[in-house]
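Quick entry between incubations.
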Amino acid sequence: MTEHVEAKSATLADELLGVVQAVEGVSAVYPAQPLWQSVAGAAVAAVTGEQLPLISLTEQDGTLAIKARIGVGSPLPAPKVAREAAAAIRRHLGNVPAVVEVLVAKIEA
Amino acid sequence: MPDSHPWKGRNVTGSPAVSPTAQQPLDLVPDALLAGRAADGDTAAFEALARRHGPLMRATARRLTGTLADADDVVQESLMQAWKQLDQLRDPAAVKSWLLRIVGTRSIDHLRKRRNHLALDDLENHVDAPSGQRTQDPESTAVNASRVDALKSALTLLPEEQRRCWVLKEFNDLSYEEIALTLNISPASVRGRLARARIALARTMEEWR
Amino acid sequence: MKTPGDALECGHSLAELSAYLDTGEIADPAHLDSCPECQAGLASLRRLSELGNELLTADVAEAGSGGDDWMQTILDNLRLELRPGRSIPLRAEDPQDTLWETEGSVSALIRSVADSFPGTAAGKCRLLGDITEPGAGITVDVEIAVVYGHAMEERAAALRNELAKMLQVQTELDIQAINITVTDVLELPAPAMTPNTEDQP
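Done. Structure below.
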């Protein structure tokens, strides 16, 4: 089963957020968990003041699974921006084994 | 309902018989029908409801949270929650007060979340203060403003719980029971807080007169 | 200067009067009519209530109409959140990567192109075919409304070209056809938005 990587993952998720936001053509990073799925969890988050990390990070058998949901807003083609975002995440991770998932949830022409 | 949409659709003679495209024709459909259709998954009906009650939801959330930007977040979250929970709406004709109750709950959640991020002082300065005059004497600052502006200022000086009760009553015409459910307090508390809010506001307004 | 406190000298309280205004219930209704203090208290609370209504009216007017941009933005966001639709795979450089576009993001883009096109407004929009399978042949169905006075055939053809270009750039779908159906003609009652007369048939 997957398990959440604790403290170090919070830092890494933050770093990756910066990396993805810096990719040309990325106009927004949405919570990897769609909002409506976290509506029930919102009450908990409200009490604890915790923000769900925008970039989701899980680990399974020593392999990191990274998930990012982005909006694209530029003349650059959305598929190209998605590939560039994945590549930027990989560059940041170096040799760490990882599966990267990038979902384009919004395209602004 | 305001009938402000700029164009009215009409089917082209000889065009394929298809349903009207835009949401505009739904503007005339009563709440209960729209809510029923929305509960069946009709997104156009849901959007028509959102357009119809959105301005009041936004105005309410603004008085509850303090800013229009927060209000828009709250309206969006509220509509999202409403769409997910439409099947729990017992009386489709009461969809308006149901939406407003969701707005009340989510406004308070929104503030609570922020309170956990900001120091209380920041929050107090941030909430309301429509003219940035929160710390000043309303009597002196409001002297040249309209009575409505004076009420706005007086509202910002109320304890938060009292202001919530007042907004939910006067803006949304919710019953004591509905307000109690929204704020998670007893109807007796609603009655007391509302009375205290009105007494304080009335006193300020009488002095101002 | 008289400052109304909670307790009135007649033994009633403003809190009781406040509840009476909402519920119409009070212990001895007959007293109200004859008690000047209660009458003054009620009048004060009613003035406040009227003022509250004025504030509400002003706030709702300030909030704008449900047809304004702020609501459209909210509804657009809701669509993307609530109805992402199917996931359309994109080519990845690394075999360990999975990249997608949501169907919702593509249909929202199609609608926005149609909406920003002069004289047209988007209605329903569908991607027909197995968009989850790379290389599958896809047909796009778009319903539009055309503003009265715009040549329908010409509008549809121009929009088809525009959509084809956009889908080529922004997706990797193999688009085989774009069907545009004019389902409505929109009349502009206001003189402000009258279409150009030169476009009239």
